[in-house]
Design brief:
It contains four helices and twelve strands; from the N terminus they run βαβββαββββββααββ. With 231 residues, the protein is mainly beta. The protein has a ten-stranded mixed beta sheet, with no helix packed on it. A two-stranded parallel sheet has the order 6-8.
């Protein structure tokens, strides 16, 4: 079945679910024949590793990439996707920092990392992510610190952080993000929320952000918002 996909040479959007690790190689061979592909969404079968490393000649027109499942490493071909606009990594559980592979993609506008990284620190290096506008980070269990170095993702407009409970400090360098329009925090440490509300110790770092909201999950299953922005 996966081998037959290679005949769909004009396909622009491809979604695959329940992919077994042993079939990853065959899928990669088929994708190499789909040079018109613009959207690729691949989800591994439960408890299977998502192996996309056999892809040597990825579609050059790819704009949206979503990989869902455990990765041994970030596929080495991703930096060659110069037209990539959006990327989502879910349940990757990476040991290595995925940002190092993504940081030089020239047209990247949106990143979503969900249970994608097991490290304690995410560093957005100086001068990287020049066109990034949306960053969503979710369920990074061990994440303690986000560092935004000078001139990194300076066009960022939306920052959303969900359920990163080990993170108790405001992202270092967030005051450099002059174009940031919203900061949304879901089910985060109360110590972090307290820092940025009212006269909290880190409030001056986020005063330039028009909309700041912290959400707590109620027992009834809905999110209760607490608006922290002033005015």
């Amino acid at each position: 079945m996966l081998v037959a996909l290679k005949n769909l040479t004009n396909l622009k959007k491809l979604g695959i679910v329940e992919l077994r690790e042993d079939d990853g190689r065959h899928l990669c061979y088929s994708i190499e024949e789909m040079q018109s592909l613009q959207t690729l969404d691949v989800a591994a079968a439960r408890d299977e590793v998502l192996d996309m490393n056999a892809l040597r000649d990825p579609p050059k027109l790819l704009q949206r990439l979503y990989l869902k499942g455990k990765l041994q490493k970030v596929p080495v071909w991703i930096p060659s996707l110069h037209d990539l606009v959006r990327i989502g990594l879910r349940w990757s559980k990476l040991e290595e920092n995925p940002l190092e592979v993504l940081e030089d993609l020239p047209n990247l506008i949106e990143i979503q990392l969900v249970d994608a990284y097991k490290g304690k620190q995410l560093v957005f290096s100086s001068g990287k992510f020049q066109n990034l506008k949306v960053l969503e980070v979710e369920d990074l269990e061990f994440l303690e610190q986000v560092v935004i170095e000078s001139r990194s993702m300076w066009r960022l407009q939306s920052l959303v952080i969900r359920r990163c409970k080990a993170m108790e400090q405001v992202p270092e360098g967030i005051d450099r993000l002059s174009k940031l329009k919203e900061l949304q925090l879901y089910d985060m440490a109360e110590s972090l929320v307290n820092q940025i509300q009212g006269d909290g110790t880190s409030r001056p770092l986020v005063d330039h952000i028009p909309f700041i909201c912290a959400y707590s999950l109620e027992s009834a299953g809905y999110w209760r918002p607490r608006v922290l922005s002033q005015g």
